[in-house]
Automatic annotation (TrEMBL):
Name listed for the protein in its UniProt record: Tyrosinase copper-binding domain-containing protein
Pfam families: PPO1_DWL, Tyrosinase
Keywords attached to this entry: Copper, Metal-binding, Oxidoreductase
Names of the cofactor(s): Cu(2+)
Domain Tyrosinase copper-binding: 156-173, 331-342
GO MF: metal ion binding; oxidoreductase activity
Protein family according to the UniProt entry: Belongs to the tyrosinase family.
Matching InterPro entries: Di-copper_centre_dom_sf (IPR008922), Polyphenol_oxidase_cen (IPR022739), Tyrosinase/Hemocyanin (IPR050316), Tyrosinase_Cu-bd (IPR002227)
Length: 425
Protein backbone atom coordinates (compact mmCIF):
# COMPACT_ATOMS: atom_id res chain seq x y z
CA UNK A 1 0.00 0.00 0.00
CA UNK A 2 1.54 3.35 -0.89
CA UNK A 3 1.54 6.19 1.60
CA UNK A 4 -1.42 8.00 0.02
CA UNK A 5 -3.67 4.96 0.07
CA UNK A 6 -2.51 4.26 3.57
CA UNK A 7 -3.27 7.81 4.67
CA UNK A 8 -6.70 7.66 3.03
CA UNK A 9 -7.39 4.37 4.71
CA UNK A 10 -6.39 5.85 8.04
CA UNK A 11 -8.49 8.92 7.42
CA UNK A 12 -11.44 6.63 6.70
CA UNK A 13 -10.79 4.58 9.81
CA UNK A 14 -10.47 7.76 11.79
CA UNK A 15 -13.88 8.95 10.62
CA UNK A 16 -15.45 5.68 11.63
CA UNK A 17 -13.80 5.85 14.99
CA UNK A 18 -14.78 9.47 15.44
CA UNK A 19 -18.39 8.60 14.73
CA UNK A 20 -18.21 5.86 17.34
CA UNK A 21 -16.91 8.33 19.90
CA UNK A 22 -19.55 10.90 19.09
CA UNK A 23 -22.24 8.24 19.54
CA UNK A 24 -20.63 7.15 22.79
CA UNK A 25 -20.37 10.71 24.00
CA UNK A 26 -24.02 11.40 23.30
CA UNK A 27 -25.13 8.22 25.02
CA UNK A 28 -22.97 8.95 28.05
CA UNK A 29 -24.48 12.42 28.25
CA UNK A 30 -28.01 11.11 27.85
CA UNK A 31 -27.69 8.44 30.45
CA UNK A 32 -26.36 10.99 32.89
CA UNK A 33 -23.22 9.05 33.72
CA UNK A 34 -20.57 11.64 34.12
CA UNK A 35 -17.94 9.69 35.97
CA UNK A 36 -16.38 10.52 39.30
CA UNK A 37 -15.26 14.11 39.12
CA UNK A 38 -12.98 16.24 41.17
CA UNK A 39 -9.82 14.27 41.87
CA UNK A 40 -6.47 14.33 40.10
CA UNK A 41 -5.39 11.71 37.59
CA UNK A 42 -3.09 9.26 39.36
CA UNK A 43 -1.11 6.62 37.59
CA UNK A 44 -0.42 3.84 40.07
CA UNK A 45 1.01 0.35 39.97
CA UNK A 46 -2.55 -0.83 39.64
CA UNK A 47 -2.97 1.37 36.56
CA UNK A 48 0.06 -0.29 34.99
CA UNK A 49 -1.05 -3.77 36.04
CA UNK A 50 -4.45 -3.23 34.46
CA UNK A 51 -3.00 -2.05 31.17
CA UNK A 52 -4.80 -3.56 28.19
CA UNK A 53 -4.58 -3.36 24.44
CA UNK A 54 -5.60 0.01 23.14
CA UNK A 55 -6.86 1.29 19.84
CA UNK A 56 -5.85 4.02 17.50
CA UNK A 57 -7.43 4.83 14.17
CA UNK A 58 -9.35 1.59 14.36
CA UNK A 59 -6.22 -0.48 14.78
CA UNK A 60 -5.51 -2.46 17.90
CA UNK A 61 -2.32 -1.48 19.67
CA UNK A 62 -0.28 -3.57 22.11
CA UNK A 63 1.69 -1.02 24.05
CA UNK A 64 1.51 -2.29 27.61
CA UNK A 65 4.77 -2.91 29.47
CA UNK A 66 6.26 -6.18 28.21
CA UNK A 67 5.04 -9.21 30.20
CA UNK A 68 8.45 -9.77 31.75
CA UNK A 69 8.66 -6.24 33.16
CA UNK A 70 8.10 -6.77 36.87
CA UNK A 71 5.14 -4.73 38.06
CA UNK A 72 5.26 -5.89 41.65
CA UNK A 73 8.00 -3.53 42.64
CA UNK A 74 8.32 -0.72 45.10
CA UNK A 75 7.56 2.71 43.70
CA UNK A 76 9.99 5.39 44.80
CA UNK A 77 8.94 9.01 45.11
CA UNK A 78 10.76 11.33 42.77
CA UNK A 79 12.36 14.29 44.50
CA UNK A 80 13.52 17.09 42.22
CA UNK A 81 17.04 18.22 42.93
CA UNK A 82 16.65 21.83 43.71
CA UNK A 83 20.30 22.72 43.96
CA UNK A 84 22.07 20.12 41.88
CA UNK A 85 24.03 20.43 38.65
CA UNK A 86 22.46 22.36 35.85
CA UNK A 87 23.00 20.95 32.38
CA UNK A 88 22.36 23.04 29.31
CA UNK A 89 20.27 21.68 26.46
CA UNK A 90 21.66 23.36 23.37
CA UNK A 91 20.18 24.29 20.01
CA UNK A 92 21.31 21.65 17.50
CA UNK A 93 21.79 24.06 14.60
CA UNK A 94 24.43 25.91 16.54
CA UNK A 95 26.78 23.02 17.21
CA UNK A 96 29.82 22.99 14.99
CA UNK A 97 33.36 21.67 14.72
CA UNK A 98 34.64 19.54 17.54
CA UNK A 99 31.60 20.10 19.69
CA UNK A 100 29.33 18.78 16.94
CA UNK A 101 31.58 15.80 16.34
CA UNK A 102 31.61 14.84 20.01
CA UNK A 103 27.88 15.33 20.46
CA UNK A 104 27.09 13.30 17.34
CA UNK A 105 29.18 10.48 18.61
CA UNK A 106 27.59 10.51 22.05
CA UNK A 107 24.05 10.79 20.78
CA UNK A 108 24.35 8.05 18.18
CA UNK A 109 26.11 5.76 20.63
CA UNK A 110 23.40 6.31 23.23
CA UNK A 111 20.61 5.48 20.78
CA UNK A 112 22.47 2.49 19.50
CA UNK A 113 22.63 1.11 23.02
CA UNK A 114 19.03 2.05 23.69
CA UNK A 115 17.85 0.33 20.52
CA UNK A 116 19.77 -2.80 21.44
CA UNK A 117 18.44 -3.21 24.97
CA UNK A 118 16.10 -6.18 25.27
CA UNK A 119 12.50 -5.23 24.55
CA UNK A 120 11.62 -6.16 28.12
CA UNK A 121 13.89 -3.43 29.50
CA UNK A 122 11.78 -0.34 30.26
CA UNK A 123 14.73 1.78 29.14
CA UNK A 124 14.80 0.32 25.64
CA UNK A 125 13.64 2.53 22.79
CA UNK A 126 10.94 -0.07 22.19
CA UNK A 127 9.52 0.37 25.69
CA UNK A 128 9.93 4.14 25.62
CA UNK A 129 7.86 4.23 22.46
CA UNK A 130 5.30 1.89 23.95
CA UNK A 131 4.81 4.00 27.04
CA UNK A 132 3.91 7.00 24.92
CA UNK A 133 1.69 4.77 22.80
CA UNK A 134 -0.12 3.37 25.85
CA UNK A 135 -1.00 6.90 26.93
CA UNK A 136 -2.58 7.83 23.65
CA UNK A 137 -4.46 4.67 22.75
CA UNK A 138 -6.60 4.16 25.82
CA UNK A 139 -4.42 1.41 27.30
CA UNK A 140 -4.55 2.84 30.82
CA UNK A 141 -7.78 3.26 32.74
CA UNK A 142 -8.52 5.37 35.81
CA UNK A 143 -8.18 2.94 38.73
CA UNK A 144 -11.51 1.43 39.66
CA UNK A 145 -13.32 2.57 36.53
CA UNK A 146 -14.22 0.78 33.35
CA UNK A 147 -12.09 0.78 30.25
CA UNK A 148 -15.07 -0.45 28.28
CA UNK A 149 -16.84 2.79 29.14
CA UNK A 150 -13.80 4.77 27.95
CA UNK A 151 -12.62 5.95 31.35
CA UNK A 152 -9.16 5.80 29.90
CA UNK A 153 -6.24 8.15 30.40
CA UNK A 154 -4.79 10.25 27.64
CA UNK A 155 -2.05 12.80 27.92
CA UNK A 156 -2.97 14.69 24.75
CA UNK A 157 -5.58 17.34 24.08
CA UNK A 158 -5.76 18.30 27.73
CA UNK A 159 -3.79 19.99 30.52
CA UNK A 160 -1.61 16.93 31.18
CA UNK A 161 0.11 17.40 27.83
CA UNK A 162 2.91 19.80 28.81
CA UNK A 163 3.90 18.33 32.19
CA UNK A 164 3.63 14.70 31.09
CA UNK A 165 5.83 15.23 28.02
CA UNK A 166 8.34 17.27 30.01
CA UNK A 167 8.70 14.41 32.46
CA UNK A 168 8.82 11.78 29.75
CA UNK A 169 11.67 13.55 27.94
CA UNK A 170 13.39 14.22 31.27
CA UNK A 171 13.56 10.51 32.16
CA UNK A 172 14.47 9.63 28.60
CA UNK A 173 17.43 11.99 28.87
CA UNK A 174 18.45 10.47 32.21
CA UNK A 175 18.41 7.05 30.59
CA UNK A 176 20.55 8.20 27.65
CA UNK A 177 23.02 9.69 30.10
CA UNK A 178 23.22 6.50 32.07
CA UNK A 179 23.61 4.32 28.97
CA UNK A 180 26.52 6.51 27.95
CA UNK A 181 27.85 6.62 31.44
CA UNK A 182 28.46 10.31 30.87
CA UNK A 183 27.29 12.66 33.58
CA UNK A 184 27.63 15.70 31.36
CA UNK A 185 25.31 14.51 28.59
CA UNK A 186 22.16 16.50 27.85
CA UNK A 187 19.61 16.12 25.09
CA UNK A 188 19.91 19.01 22.66
CA UNK A 189 16.86 20.41 20.91
CA UNK A 190 15.52 21.19 17.47
CA UNK A 191 14.87 24.92 17.48
CA UNK A 192 12.27 24.58 14.69
CA UNK A 193 10.46 27.78 15.64
CA UNK A 194 13.46 29.95 14.83
CA UNK A 195 13.38 31.12 11.22
CA UNK A 196 15.51 34.18 11.72
CA UNK A 197 18.66 34.75 9.83
CA UNK A 198 21.01 36.10 12.44
CA UNK A 199 22.60 38.44 9.95
CA UNK A 200 19.24 40.15 9.50
CA UNK A 201 18.60 40.36 13.16
CA UNK A 202 17.86 43.82 14.35
CA UNK A 203 19.09 42.89 17.77
CA UNK A 204 22.66 43.09 18.82
CA UNK A 205 23.11 39.96 20.83
CA UNK A 206 26.23 38.98 22.61
CA UNK A 207 25.50 35.53 23.92
CA UNK A 208 23.45 32.60 22.77
CA UNK A 209 22.75 31.04 19.41
CA UNK A 210 21.13 32.95 16.58
CA UNK A 211 21.25 30.71 13.54
CA UNK A 212 17.92 29.75 11.98
CA UNK A 213 16.83 26.37 13.31
CA UNK A 214 13.90 25.43 11.10
CA UNK A 215 15.62 22.72 9.03
CA UNK A 216 15.80 19.11 10.22
CA UNK A 217 19.00 18.88 12.26
CA UNK A 218 21.36 16.84 10.11
CA UNK A 219 22.56 14.80 13.01
CA UNK A 220 19.18 13.00 12.86
CA UNK A 221 19.35 12.57 9.12
CA UNK A 222 22.28 10.27 8.59
CA UNK A 223 20.81 6.98 7.48
CA UNK A 224 23.74 4.99 8.75
CA UNK A 225 23.29 6.00 12.38
CA UNK A 226 20.92 5.09 15.18
CA UNK A 227 19.16 8.48 15.29
CA UNK A 228 17.71 7.92 11.83
CA UNK A 229 14.34 6.41 11.06
CA UNK A 230 13.54 5.53 7.48
CA UNK A 231 9.86 5.91 8.10
CA UNK A 232 9.81 9.72 8.06
CA UNK A 233 8.39 11.68 5.17
CA UNK A 234 10.73 12.37 2.27
CA UNK A 235 10.30 16.06 3.03
CA UNK A 236 12.58 15.63 5.99
CA UNK A 237 15.40 14.32 3.84
CA UNK A 238 15.68 17.27 1.52
CA UNK A 239 18.11 19.77 2.96
CA UNK A 240 16.83 23.27 3.47
CA UNK A 241 13.11 22.64 3.50
CA UNK A 242 11.58 24.61 6.31
CA UNK A 243 9.52 22.60 8.81
CA UNK A 244 5.90 23.71 8.56
CA UNK A 245 4.31 24.81 11.84
CA UNK A 246 1.14 26.05 10.23
CA UNK A 247 -0.65 22.82 9.38
CA UNK A 248 -4.21 23.09 10.72
CA UNK A 249 -4.28 21.43 14.12
CA UNK A 250 -7.66 19.85 13.60
CA UNK A 251 -6.71 17.92 10.46
CA UNK A 252 -5.42 14.41 10.85
CA UNK A 253 -4.15 13.70 7.36
CA UNK A 254 -3.91 16.99 5.56
CA UNK A 255 -2.27 17.50 2.23
CA UNK A 256 1.04 19.14 3.07
CA UNK A 257 2.47 21.34 0.35
CA UNK A 258 6.18 21.97 0.29
CA UNK A 259 6.52 25.69 0.85
CA UNK A 260 9.39 27.91 -0.11
CA UNK A 261 11.18 29.56 2.78
CA UNK A 262 9.68 32.90 1.72
CA UNK A 263 6.25 31.52 2.20
CA UNK A 264 6.92 29.23 5.16
CA UNK A 265 8.76 31.62 7.43
CA UNK A 266 5.99 34.22 7.85
CA UNK A 267 3.40 31.46 8.22
CA UNK A 268 5.47 29.81 10.93
CA UNK A 269 5.95 33.08 12.65
CA UNK A 270 2.24 33.65 12.81
CA UNK A 271 1.57 30.07 13.96
CA UNK A 272 4.10 30.57 16.75
CA UNK A 273 2.60 33.85 17.82
CA UNK A 274 -0.82 32.23 18.07
CA UNK A 275 0.62 29.13 19.75
CA UNK A 276 2.46 31.24 22.30
CA UNK A 277 -0.28 33.71 22.92
CA UNK A 278 -0.81 34.65 26.50
CA UNK A 279 -4.50 33.73 26.53
CA UNK A 280 -6.84 34.89 29.24
CA UNK A 281 -7.43 31.73 31.26
CA UNK A 282 -5.17 28.70 31.96
CA UNK A 283 -7.16 26.61 29.51
CA UNK A 284 -5.94 28.72 26.58
CA UNK A 285 -2.30 27.69 26.80
CA UNK A 286 -2.51 24.47 28.83
CA UNK A 287 -5.62 22.79 27.42
CA UNK A 288 -8.86 21.58 28.95
CA UNK A 289 -8.98 19.96 32.37
CA UNK A 290 -8.64 16.20 32.60
CA UNK A 291 -9.35 14.64 35.96
CA UNK A 292 -9.97 11.30 37.56
CA UNK A 293 -13.23 9.97 36.19
CA UNK A 294 -13.15 11.88 32.92
CA UNK A 295 -13.85 9.84 29.81
CA UNK A 296 -11.43 9.69 26.94
CA UNK A 297 -11.33 12.86 24.90
CA UNK A 298 -10.02 12.66 21.36
CA UNK A 299 -11.10 16.11 20.39
CA UNK A 300 -8.05 18.09 19.29
CA UNK A 301 -9.70 21.35 20.30
CA UNK A 302 -9.14 20.32 23.91
CA UNK A 303 -5.48 21.11 23.32
CA UNK A 304 -3.77 24.25 24.56
CA UNK A 305 -2.59 26.71 21.91
CA UNK A 306 0.97 25.38 21.60
CA UNK A 307 -0.17 21.78 21.36
CA UNK A 308 -2.99 22.58 19.00
CA UNK A 309 -1.12 23.86 16.02
CA UNK A 310 2.69 24.03 16.21
CA UNK A 311 2.85 20.66 17.96
CA UNK A 312 0.42 18.81 15.72
CA UNK A 313 2.15 20.36 12.73
CA UNK A 314 5.52 18.96 13.71
CA UNK A 315 4.11 15.46 13.95
CA UNK A 316 2.34 15.76 10.61
CA UNK A 317 5.24 17.43 8.86
CA UNK A 318 7.79 14.82 9.94
CA UNK A 319 5.25 12.26 8.86
CA UNK A 320 5.54 8.46 8.75
CA UNK A 321 5.40 6.88 12.19
CA UNK A 322 5.75 10.27 13.87
CA UNK A 323 2.41 11.29 12.40
CA UNK A 324 0.52 8.91 14.67
CA UNK A 325 0.63 9.21 18.45
CA UNK A 326 0.81 5.43 18.78
CA UNK A 327 4.09 5.18 16.88
CA UNK A 328 5.64 8.65 17.29
CA UNK A 329 7.97 7.92 20.17
CA UNK A 330 9.69 4.97 18.49
CA UNK A 331 11.66 7.53 16.50
CA UNK A 332 14.53 9.30 18.31
CA UNK A 333 13.57 12.54 16.57
CA UNK A 334 10.50 12.68 18.83
CA UNK A 335 12.52 13.43 21.95
CA UNK A 336 14.55 16.30 20.57
CA UNK A 337 11.64 18.14 19.03
CA UNK A 338 9.67 17.62 22.22
CA UNK A 339 12.56 19.17 24.09
CA UNK A 340 11.84 22.30 22.08
CA UNK A 341 8.16 22.29 23.03
CA UNK A 342 9.35 21.95 26.57
CA UNK A 343 11.62 24.96 26.05
CA UNK A 344 8.72 26.92 24.56
CA UNK A 345 6.59 26.21 27.61
CA UNK A 346 9.44 27.48 29.75
CA UNK A 347 9.77 30.63 27.61
CA UNK A 348 6.04 31.22 27.79
CA UNK A 349 6.17 31.03 31.57
CA UNK A 350 9.03 33.49 31.67
CA UNK A 351 7.27 35.94 29.40
CA UNK A 352 5.48 38.90 30.95
CA UNK A 353 3.23 37.76 33.73
CA UNK A 354 2.13 34.55 32.03
CA UNK A 355 3.19 32.63 35.12
CA UNK A 356 0.01 33.85 36.71
CA UNK A 357 -1.99 31.89 34.15
CA UNK A 358 -0.60 28.54 35.17
CA UNK A 359 -3.41 26.35 36.55
CA UNK A 360 -3.69 26.46 40.33
CA UNK A 361 -6.30 23.70 40.48
CA UNK A 362 -5.12 20.97 42.89
CA UNK A 363 -6.48 18.42 40.41
CA UNK A 364 -3.71 19.52 38.08
CA UNK A 365 -0.95 20.09 40.63
CA UNK A 366 -1.59 16.80 42.43
CA UNK A 367 -1.73 14.62 39.33
CA UNK A 368 0.80 11.77 39.53
CA UNK A 369 2.69 9.89 36.87
CA UNK A 370 4.92 6.83 37.02
CA UNK A 371 8.13 6.62 35.00
CA UNK A 372 11.00 4.17 34.96
CA UNK A 373 14.25 5.90 35.66
CA UNK A 374 17.73 5.09 34.36
CA UNK A 375 18.10 2.25 36.89
CA UNK A 376 14.72 0.73 35.99
CA UNK A 377 13.28 2.01 39.26
CA UNK A 378 9.67 3.15 39.03
CA UNK A 379 9.37 6.75 40.12
CA UNK A 380 6.22 8.49 41.23
CA UNK A 381 6.30 12.06 39.97
CA UNK A 382 3.93 14.71 41.18
CA UNK A 383 2.98 17.17 38.51
CA UNK A 384 3.75 20.10 40.80
CA UNK A 385 7.40 18.99 40.87
CA UNK A 386 7.74 19.32 37.11
CA UNK A 387 6.93 22.98 36.82
CA UNK A 388 10.44 24.38 36.95
CA UNK A 389 13.18 23.14 34.66
CA UNK A 390 15.74 24.51 37.12
CA UNK A 391 14.40 22.10 39.74
CA UNK A 392 14.86 19.30 37.22
CA UNK A 393 18.47 20.32 36.73
CA UNK A 394 18.55 21.69 33.21
CA UNK A 395 18.25 24.90 31.27
CA UNK A 396 18.05 25.85 27.61
CA UNK A 397 20.63 27.67 25.62
CA UNK A 398 19.45 31.13 24.73
CA UNK A 399 18.42 31.31 21.08
CA UNK A 400 16.80 33.89 18.90
CA UNK A 401 13.44 33.78 20.64
CA UNK A 402 12.80 37.32 19.58
CA UNK A 403 12.33 36.09 16.02
CA UNK A 404 8.70 35.28 16.50
CA UNK A 405 8.14 37.01 19.80
CA UNK A 406 9.29 40.22 18.21
CA UNK A 407 8.54 41.31 21.55
CA UNK A 408 6.05 39.64 23.74
CA UNK A 409 3.85 42.68 23.38
CA UNK A 410 2.64 41.41 20.03
CA UNK A 411 1.59 38.13 21.54
CA UNK A 412 -0.17 39.85 24.38
CA UNK A 413 -2.04 42.11 22.05
CA UNK A 414 -3.23 39.55 19.50
CA UNK A 415 -6.98 39.78 19.40
CA UNK A 416 -8.85 36.79 20.75
CA UNK A 417 -10.65 36.83 17.42
CA UNK A 418 -7.49 35.59 15.81
CA UNK A 419 -7.13 32.82 18.31
CA UNK A 420 -10.68 31.75 17.71
CA UNK A 421 -10.00 31.68 14.00
CA UNK A 422 -7.04 29.35 14.49
CA UNK A 423 -9.07 26.98 16.59
CA UNK A 424 -11.76 26.74 13.98
CA UNK A 425 -9.53 25.94 11.01
CU1 LIG B 1 2.65 12.78 22.89
CU2 LIG B 1 4.24 15.13 20.33
O1 LIG B 1 3.22 13.89 21.43
Amino acid sequence: MDITTWALQLRFNFLIQLTAYVVLFISVMQSGISGVQGAPVRITLQTLQNCRNGSSFNMTTSCCPAPDVDLNVPVVDFVPKRHGVCRVRKALQCLSGEELRIYTEKLTTAYEIMRNLPASDPRSLMQQGRIHCAYCTGSFTHDGLSAAAYFTIDIHFNWLFLPWHRTFVYFHERILRKLLNDESFSLHFWNFDNGADATNSTQVETEGCFKPGHFVPRIYNNNSTSTFDSNRSNRTLVPNIVADLSIPGSEFFPVIPVRSADEAVPRNREAMQIGMERGTIPRDFFGVTFKYGDVRNLNTTGAGSLEFQPHSSMHLWIGGGVMLPATAAFDPIFYMFHANFDRLWHIWMETGDNRKLQPTDPDWLDAEFLFWDENQVLRRVKLRDTLSIGDLGYSYEKVNDAFWMEDARIIASLASERRRRAFQL
